[in-house]
Amino acid sequence: MNHKEDEFIRDEALPIAGLMEHPNSVVQWRGRAGISIRELAARVGINEKTLRWIEVGRAPLRAPVSRDISRALGCTVEELSEPCASPRNSLIPARRRLRNLERGRGARRWAGKLPIPPSAHPLIRKLFEEMNERKMLILEIAEISGVSKHTISDWRYKRTPGVENLNAVLNVLNLELTITETDDESG
């Protein structure tokens, strides 16, 4: 095959960590073409949900649809029918990798301020503001504190930190968590 296969692996040793096993190569060819599920479904004339189900094997890849998909993606029906393993979203890895390289991420160096969503708790907001000000990586904080980098990163969006983990991270920054009385009589 003359296409790059750096992001897609065809091997008998499936599943592979970080990759999702697929009974066909629709996701692989869609990723190479750089089109979304919505766009491919429209080109082929099928429902998006049906296409998702075909990609993950919950619906069979039947002859008429496989011909239409292979035409839309520029491959043969045989190539489309081969199983593969790929990242969950075939478009994300290449785009993210390029974007991160442009920013300098991946080289264990600070690559700009981490985004802090407005919905983040004020304490977490302050923590990440400190990290940004000191140009510290989540990975650095994680290695020193013993708290997973994924856990720390998740605090910005969806996870509330436990007191022990938060205290460990704050200690790395020479900060401490304290309890103080408020002047507010309602509290």
What does this structure look like?
This protein has 187 residues and is mainly α. It is built from 10 helices and 2 strands. The chain has 2 domains: 20-94, Orthogonal Bundle (434 Repressor (Amino-terminal Domain)); 107-172, 434 Repressor (Amino-terminal Domain) (Orthogonal Bundle). It is elongated and about 70 Å long. Residues 1-17 have low confidence and may be disordered.
| End-to-end gap | 68 Å
How many strands appear in the DSSP assignment? 2
Strand order of the largest sheet: 1-2
* Gyration radius over CA: 23 Å
Q: Averaged pLDDT, please?
A: 79
CATH structural architecture of the largest domain: Orthogonal Bundle
Kindly give the count of domains.
Answer: 2
Total of helices = 10
Quickly list its features.
187 residues; mainly alpha; 434 Repressor (Amino-terminal Domain); 2 domains; two-stranded antiparallel sheet; 10 helices; 2 strands; disordered N terminus
Question: What would a concise description of this structure say?
Answer:
This protein has helices spanning 26-33, 37-44, 48-56, 63-73, 77-81, 92-103, 122-133, 138-145, 149-154, 163-172; strands at residues 20-22, 84-86. It has 187 residues and is mainly alpha-helical. It folds into 2 domains: 20-94, lambda repressor-like DNA-binding domains (434 Repressor (Amino-terminal Domain)); 107-172, 434 Repressor (Amino-terminal Domain), CATH 1.10.260.
